[in-house]
């Protein structure tokens, strides 16, 4: 595992999560369970975002929420789903950049709402 390095690639993250799941976590939860867990984690992230950056006020139980930790939880479960479904996230992200560079080449530059 690459826990002490300062930078980790997406490929290495996929390998490290897989290793952790198979040694510490015993096995992956089912894909649908992990999809539900992902939505739960996104909800926890949304709660912090709504209170820190939005108009929502904090409840006592919301205090101490860690934005970075919630983002990492979302990433962890997304990596689990990628591993389970055979998705190479590095390749997927590279293809997504290509798609966006073609589809959105001028779109955002010409958007008056972004100025």
Automatic annotation (TrEMBL):
Transmembrane segments: none annotated. SUPFAM superfamilies: all-alpha NTP pyrophosphatases. CDD domains: NTP-PPase_BsYpjD (cd11531). Residues 30-107 form the NTP pyrophosphohydrolase MazG-like domain. It holds the Pfam family MazG. PANTHER family: NUCLEOTIDE PYROPHOSPHOHYDROLASE (PTHR42692). This is Nucleotide pyrophosphohydrolase. It comes from Belliella alkalica.
């Amino acid at each position: 595992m690459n826990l002490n390095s300062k930078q980790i690639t997406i490929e290495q993250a996929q390998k490290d999560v897989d290793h952790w799941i198979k040694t510490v976590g015993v096995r992956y939860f089912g894909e649908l369970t992990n999809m539900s867990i992902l939505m739960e984690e996104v909800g926890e992230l949304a709660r912090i975002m709504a209170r820190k950056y939005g108009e929502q006020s904090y409840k006592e139980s919301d205090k101490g929420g860690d934005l970075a930790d919630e983002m990492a939880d979302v990433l962890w479960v997304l990596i689990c789903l990628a591993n389970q479904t055979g998705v190479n996230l590095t390749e997927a992200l590279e293809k997504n950049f290509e798609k966006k560079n073609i589809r959105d080449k001028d779109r955002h530059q010409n958007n008056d709402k972004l100025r």
